[in-house]
Structures are given as structure tokens and as C-alpha cells.
Amino acid sequence: MQPPDCPEMTAIALDEPFEFGCHPGVPCFNHCCRDLNQALTPHDVLQLRRHLGLSWASFVRDFADVHMGPSTGLPVVSLRFHAQAGRLCPFVTSRGCRVYAARPTSCRLYPLARALQRNRADGRLTVHYALLREPHCRGFEQPQRQTVRRWLADQQLAAGLAANDELMQLIVLKNQRRPGALAPRQRQWALMALYDLDTLKTSAGTLPAMGGSDLGPPPDHRDDPAWLNWGLAWIQRALLDG
Ligand code: SF4
Ligand code: SF4
Questions:
Q1: What mean pLDDT is predicted for residues 149-168?
Q2: Residue of the nearest CA to atom 2 in ligand 2?
Q3: Which letter, b or e, does each residue of 81-118 get, where b requires 16 or more Cβ atoms within 10 Å of its Cβ?
Q4: How far away, in angstroms, is 124 Cα from ligand 2 center?
Q5: Angle made by CA atoms 161, 163, 169, in degrees to the nearest 5
Q6: Across the strands, what pairs with 146?
Q7: Distance between CA 50 and CA 117 in Å, rounded?
Q8: Which atom of ligand 2 is nearest to the CA of 29?
Q9: Residue 16: is its pLDDT beyond 50?
């Protein structure tokens, strides 16, 4: 039995019902937007930057911290929570999330947790979900019937989860074939290809061509999602084949 102040995780199937609702009327409104270790994926950063109209450099200056992951050797970008004021998310207001339309994937997913499992024999991926019940979250008292499938659709999670899975594949391959810290030049490349699309666009013509012709030419200058895919494919080759 869990102590009362501990989060509780329960595995849940895609169409298994649960009761949950989150809206400005819940007594815990905004309580989940503080004291988090909120890592942002490349997809999350791009959505936030476009919503806020910020370059990568301005986004990092105002809202994010960057460090190299001790286990992956790849850059980790996280939201900079206010050191004062109860470690609040920089985007939370008394009326809710001011970047709601571009909120990160993990914010959309909550109160669900998601894990990918790869079959060693055939490489197939299986997705597992769990319900995360934390004492501060009163959403489970709301009589709104949900299923995992419905929650994923309502929160418009398809693009974010697909992008996260691509990143996970990169991390798995990197850990298998080039474990540990990267050389300084490779660290710069990884940060640029995954997050700093402004520099990637201006540098693409001078980057080493990796892995033959399947990478394709750099995308149209204005198509940021295509640049993110191109950068991910390029860095995979640069780290693993280069
Ligand atoms: S981004 Fe929005 S939803 Fe996510 S923690 Fe911050 S305020 Fe809350
Ligand atoms: S119901 Fe849960 S997810 Fe919604 S505001 Fe409250 S603590 Fe956050």
C-alpha cells in the first residue's frame, strides 16, 4: 500500500474507462504547473517558439535551460521554472496556461504516463499507458468519463507523440552504438539539428553530407516542421555513421 502523499501509477488499456476532468473550475486549477522537471522535446520547443514568435536564442535566454544529459550524452532542454514564487512555470497565469495552444506534450498527456517497449526479437514497438494519481490533482473527482484513446484525441497528441518516438529511437541507437559523452563538435551539431533550426538553416549548405542520398535536399526555408525532420535525420547519420 502506498503512503497517502505518494503518486500512484496504474496500468491502463487504450479503451479502459476512467473518470477525469480538468478545467478552470477544479479546486486544484494550476496546481500541476509548478515544481516540475519539465524536459522539452525538439517538437515542444518548435511549437513554443512559433507560438511566442521567438528565435531559439531568445527562447533559451527567456525560458529554458540547456545541459547535456548524463546518460544519453545528448542535449536536454527544460523549462526554467521561477526560482522564487513556488517554482511556477514561466507560462502559468491566474487564468491558466498562456501557451495553451502550444503547450508541451507532457502537459497534454497528464494524468497519463506513456512508455515504449521494443521487442528484442523483431524490433516491434509496443506502447503502454498508466494513470498517474497525484494527491494534489483533484481531476479524478470530476465525473467526466474518459478513455486513454479519447484523451489522446482531445489533447491533440498525435504529432507530439510521433515526434517523441522519433527522438526516442535516436536516443536508443545513440546509446547502443556511441554510448557516453559526445565530442564538443558533435554536441554543437546535436543542439543545432534538434533545437536551433535558425542555425541549421544557415549552416545546412556547409554541413558534411551523411549517409548518401536518402537524406534529401534541405527543405523550404519556411517549413520548420520539415527542417526538424531533416535535422533529426541528419544528426542520426552524423552521430552514428560519421
Ligand atoms: S506549459 Fe502551460 S500547462 Fe505546461 S506546466 Fe506550463 S503553464 Fe502548465
Ligand atoms: S485537475 Fe489535475 S491536471 Fe487539472 S489543474 Fe488540477 S492538478 Fe492540474
A1: 95
A2: 137
A3: beeeeeebbebbeeeebebeebbbbbbbbbbbbbeeee
A4: 34
A5: 100
A6: 18
A7: 32
A8: 5
A9: yes
Contact 68, 75 (CB under 8 A): yes
Q: Which ligand is nearest to the CA of 24?
A: 2
Ligand 1 neighbours (beta carbon < 6 A): 33, 89, 91-92, 97, 99, 103-104, 107
Neighbours of 130 (CB within 10 A): 16
Amino acid at 85: A
- Which helix (H) or strand (E) segment holds residue 238: the answer is helix 224-240
Which residues are near ligand 2 (CB < 6 Å)? Answer: 22, 26, 28-32, 110, 136-139
CA-to-CA distance for 57 and 179, rounded, in angstroms?
Answer: 28
Tally the residues of the chain.
242
Q: pLDDT tens digits for 74-105? A: 999 999 998 777 789 999 999 999 999 999 99
Which long-range contacts link 87-90 to residues 24+ away (Cβ below 8 Å)?
87/34, 87/35, 87/36, 88/33, 88/34, 89/33, 89/34, 89/36, 89/38, 90/62, 90/63
Give CA–CA dist 199/9, Å, rounded: 41
More confident residue, 99 or 71: 99
End-to-end CA separation in angstroms for the chain: 50
C-alpha–C-alpha distance, residues 61 and 54, integer Å: 10
- Residue 61: CA atoms inside 13 Å, Cβ hemisphere, count? 5
Element (H, E) at 133: strand 125-133
Which ranges constitute the DSSP H helices of 53-183? Answer: 56-63, 105-109, 148-154, 158-177
